[in-house]
Amino acid sequence: MLGAAPIWEVAERQSTSHHHHHQEVWPSILSNSDRQSQSRSLQAVLHGCSNVSSWQGPTKFVSHPTQLPAEQSSLFDQVQGKKVSPAVWGCRVQTVLPPSRNKRYDALSLSVRCNSSGTQSERAVEIEHQKSGQLEGAKRRVVFLGTPEVAAGVLRRLLEEAAKENSLFEITAVVSQPAAKQGRGRKLLPSSVSALALESGLPEDRLLCPDTAREEAFLERLSDLAPDLCVTAAYGNILPNKFLAIPRCGTLNIHPSLLPLYRGASPVQRAIEAGEKVTGVTVAFTVRAMDAGPVLAQEEVEVDPNIKAPELLEYLFRRGTDLLLRNLPSVFDGTAAERATEQDHAKKTEAPKVRIEEGNLDFEQPASVLHNKVRAFAGWPGTKATFYIRSDGSEESEPVTVKVITTRVVEGEGAEGDSKEVTLSKTGLRVTCVDGSILEIQELQPPSKKPMRGRDFWNGLRGRRLYRGEVEAKIPY
């Protein structure tokens, strides 16, 4: 027996040809357990042949309907019944792996060359491949790609599901960005996804950290792993066509927006910045263009007016993982690709990467705009505002730049005129913007200090006044 348990095997069938009945044994295609290479791992055996002289592949995979057409059946009878027999001197089988994606059924294309009675004939026979998901005990091979902590949450859930006895899949490998310098000490540390993968017991040679997904050594290693599916979540590298051609069932991405809205690197930040009341998560097939692939599933989510980007991002990826898991059976049997819908590209919006300078707050803008920025840019890059501290009767003011952490818009209240002086309420510092709207700063962080409540910052002023901009000194008469 060549290889492990059959990966492609077609059972016996009964047929009637030329008014006589006989049993036919269809060819079985056997593979080693790893299917490590398209061109090296397959072994072909033709039952009833005295000699399989050579196997050459891969060639081309052919989609096939559920049953062999009548004309193909007749052709198969001719080849299988008489010529492919113990009397045959030899035959050559050509086939390929992996199956064509986006099709419910796969077929093996066999080119059988037979010598019989001194006459050489060649026939091409298409054999139906069993519907994916019906192969007993064969778990689908999934490769996960992700980098930050939020992606580690997705991987953790997938590992938990893969460990279940009745799971359809296993995590064959994990791909993440290389270790990077982090923190104040600038130590070289692995990504959150890499750390979790190793903690979970994944062999080190199954954790791949290429600088880019275009590296030939990486693509060759991925091809050797022969994944059925790749899943990406905040990976951070562009995937080339060579990559996308490798997984049998394609590559699925969990994207935290309602595509085609907010395509790009910062969908959650940009949605919050824009004040969206509804957003969502999408599971979509990956194509070469960014976030432009067919949509498999989507879920809408209402956006709390005070939620910050890191919380919403984590929540959307959690919902997206549930969405992915619910759809995996149809992904593996091919029906998901058939029902995935193209995006309306005319409605696309962009979500470009956030720049550090975008975190500066300008009180020339309305309070609602500033509040959305504070929420959107929480974590990184954060938001900063400059205030001016002044003692009564002094002609000089002292600037102080603080990190603004938590805010709210004071509804139903507004100041008349352009009041630059900051006041104190029971819950925080109140700043009047140019249009009269009021932003309340509930939590902030002064330079070289820990985060604190707005009231605690106010108490530290010790009677000095606070302004949102420079003011002229009041000259006592």
Automatic annotation (TrEMBL):
EC number(s) from the headed UniProt entry: 2.1.2.9
Region Disordered, residue ranges: 12-32
Chain ranges of the Formyl transferase N-terminal domain: 141-312
Broad enzyme group: transferase
Annotated ranges, domain Formyl transferase C-terminal: 355-461
Domain of life from the UniProt record: Eukaryota
One Pfam match: Formyl_trans_C
NCBIfam families the record matches: fmt
HAMAP family: Formyl_trans
Name of the protein described by the UniProt record: Methionyl-tRNA formyltransferase, mitochondrial
Organism whose genome encodes this protein: Klebsormidium nitens (Green alga)
